């Protein structure tokens, strides 16, 4: 799945070019830009005033548990008239909560930050879960980071191979996905099971459908792979030495590298998948203006820097800083949007096959 911003400008421009001179087009465009800019500024002033009157924004997110409150504190410093409340959940239970509240008419959340799946996208498209609007800061993001002016990509998680540097030297560490199936790593590999995370389903689809690695469930079973709960459980197992190497969604990687954890990592040259961390304003947000102010703040240069610092993931604003210890997504050898590889049918097939292979109900 590729996200494209709405763009009818080319068709309209072509029609005008056939009717008037290029000089007139330039003048009209300049006047139009001036009018739009002034209008946007006037409307944003109204949004800021409305947000101050509402006085609160409610966030549901799956941001780093030790970073989300620090992030909100930075927002409150810039907007002291807007209080913040937040609930942190994993992506699946967060969506379950949102759907239950929406269907019951209990509209609590203003902004959600999550990893989208097909169900969320369908709900936005068919049930109008998300507000359509244009954040003032959107001009600083590439078009692919806006989906219909409803979902905005703020940060990205990537799949990596990691290892305990006290147990494995950098020279002998796995460099490619195929290396994980080398018998020398039998009994030494950690993995987050695909029934727990969409990101894992996506990397499996990449392995099997793009890299043609065959039945990866059977291969991992032959390796006596050890399952751990979530990316946090994976990286803790590697640091403890419970396993020597692992596949990891890199959400917790940067904070541990900052703390000096003995962890090596690589993003294979054959490519990896990226999971977009998106934000959206709920269509029936009880504090819609405060919601817009908060989400737009996350898209500012300062907000992206704070999200980088306290979220620990690569951010998406054009020209934004990179993480100190990890490369930016744009610096990786090959990156594929995980959602482009998978739909609900492929998800179910992967999960069911892995459960059957490992005897897990």
UniProtKB/TrEMBL annotation:
Protein name per UniProt: Iron ABC transporter substrate-binding protein
InterPro entries: SBP
Signal peptide (UniProt feature, chain positions): 1-40
Membrane spanning residue stretches: none
One GO cellular component term noted in the UniProt record for this chain: outer membrane-bounded periplasmic space
Highest classification ranks of the organism: Bacteria, Pseudomonadati, Pseudomonadota, Alphaproteobacteria, Rhodobacterales
Pfam family, one: SBP_bac_8
Keywords recorded for this protein, A-Z: Signal
Keyword Signal: yes
